[in-house]
Amino acid sequence: MTTLALSSADLPVFFEERHAALAARLTPEALAPLAGAQDPAAVARCMGEPLGLYAHLVPEALGGAPAGGGPAADPAAVDVRSLVLIREALGQVSPLADAIFAVQGLGSYPIVLAGSDAQRRAILPDVLSGRRIGAFALTEPEAGSDVASLRTEARREGDGWVLDGEKVLISNVPLAHHLVVFARTGEGRAGITAFLVDSGAPGVAAEPLPMSVPHPIGRLRFDGCRVPDGARLGEVGGGYRLAMQTLDAFRISVGAAANGMAARALREAIAHVTRRRQFGAPLSEQQMVRAYLAEMATELDAARLLVARAAHKRDSGGAAARVSTEAAMAKMFATEAAQRIIDRAVQLHGGLGVIEGTEVERLYREIRPLRIYEGTTEIQKLIIAKGILDRAAAERAAGEPARGEAR
């Protein structure tokens, strides 16, 4: 692989000079230490120093990378287009690195949004360097898409809190130094509060879970885990909103990771069908094969456009921008399209496509979780439908025809 397919190269209308500079750094040579690496701890450290990728997870005002001017200069905003480029690159080079990078963002952005000055000073510099890895402890055995039904409890005791409960499918658990834990302090969505918990604190037990791909993930149990009130992130009852703000900021970049994996699969497919001969000619000369390649390339470009649009809109509006519909469209379409593209790449490889260790076989396993985490495809459809219906209702209330209605 001599170059990486990054959206800034041929979609310049969505990007700026700083993105071109970042893309120039994201070369196969620079990312070579990540390619094929199987040690999650080493991969996690490498993305901090020497690569400096974690700088893009933290706003410039708190020591991170510049996010440009205008509304995106909001001190709580990260530059989502930079996240898109990084995850496009990591998706092509190392899905393991991409997963760790993404959860490092989820495990640090709540501190950016709601942390005290003391929490930010204590945590964020080490996040940037890679000396500290975070995890986002939200999902539970009975609370996945239905976040409001979580059961982990935080009860007030003296001048602190006691946490009891269980979290599952929490990425970065085997590596994490700190956990952003969402626990119930009251009823409903308004009864969820976030806490910053040291992964080695008394009363915290971590159990790794096996995956079909290299991915640090596990289960957490809290049994009388005592934390001071200073471990609270934001206001009591503000945890649900904080979780949604965090997911909104990073959900767009899931689509970018999917695009990176799909781009790698398309590249592998093109190389294979050009090289492989059947019936006296390269596979690439067969009409059906060409039709498959055309469909794969078109779906990939459509996904890249949706992701770039959502990221541009988010960056233009800052951390407060409401881009839930666009983000859900980008995440849903890109991950589903990548699954189809990679599946087709496996098919074009024939029997070689299901031999363990081949690139397309690995990608086939790596892409599957992206259709689930940070909101399943089904949840994205609900978000999109709500967004378009709310918009139509607002247009009718304003006396304007809704989109699609006769004017």
Automatic annotation (TrEMBL):
<dbReference type="InterPro" id="IPR009100">
    <property type="entry name" value="AcylCoA_DH/oxidase_NM_dom_sf"/>
</dbReference>
<keyword id="KW-0560">Oxidoreductase</keyword>
<dbReference type="InterPro" id="IPR009075">
    <property type="entry name" value="AcylCo_DH/oxidase_C"/>
</dbReference>
<protein>
    <recommendedName>
        <fullName>Acyl-CoA dehydrogenase</fullName>
    </recommendedName>
</protein>
<feature type="domain" description="Acyl-CoA dehydrogenase/oxidase C-terminal">
    <location>
        <begin position="237"/>
        <end position="389"/>
    </location>
</feature>
<feature type="domain" description="Acyl-CoA oxidase/dehydrogenase middle">
    <location>
        <begin position="135"/>
        <end position="224"/>
    </location>
</feature>
<dbReference type="InterPro" id="IPR046373">
    <property type="entry name" value="Acyl-CoA_Oxase/DH_mid-dom_sf"/>
</dbReference>
<keyword id="KW-0274">FAD</keyword>
<dbReference type="Pfam" id="PF00441">
    <property type="entry name" value="Acyl-CoA_dh_1"/>
</dbReference>
<dbReference type="InterPro" id="IPR037069">
    <property type="entry name" value="AcylCoA_DH/ox_N_sf"/>
</dbReference>
<feature type="domain" description="Acyl-CoA dehydrogenase/oxidase N-terminal">
    <location>
        <begin position="23"/>
        <end position="130"/>
    </location>
</feature>
<dbReference type="GO" id="GO:0050660">
    <property type="term" value="F:flavin adenine dinucleotide binding"/>
</dbReference>
<dbReference type="GO" id="GO:0003995">
    <property type="term" value="F:acyl-CoA dehydrogenase activity"/>
</dbReference>
<dbReference type="InterPro" id="IPR013786">
    <property type="entry name" value="AcylCoA_DH/ox_N"/>
</dbReference>
<dbReference type="Pfam" id="PF02771">
    <property type="entry name" value="Acyl-CoA_dh_N"/>
</dbReference>
<dbReference type="InterPro" id="IPR006089">
    <property type="entry name" value="Acyl-CoA_DH_CS"/>
</dbReference>
<dbReference type="Pfam" id="PF02770">
    <property type="entry name" value="Acyl-CoA_dh_M"/>
</dbReference>
<dbReference type="InterPro" id="IPR006091">
    <property type="entry name" value="Acyl-CoA_Oxase/DH_mid-dom"/>
</dbReference>
<dbReference type="InterPro" id="IPR036250">
    <property type="entry name" value="AcylCo_DH-like_C"/>
</dbReference>
<comment type="similarity">
    <text>Belongs to the acyl-CoA dehydrogenase family.</text>
</comment>
<keyword id="KW-0285">Flavoprotein</keyword>
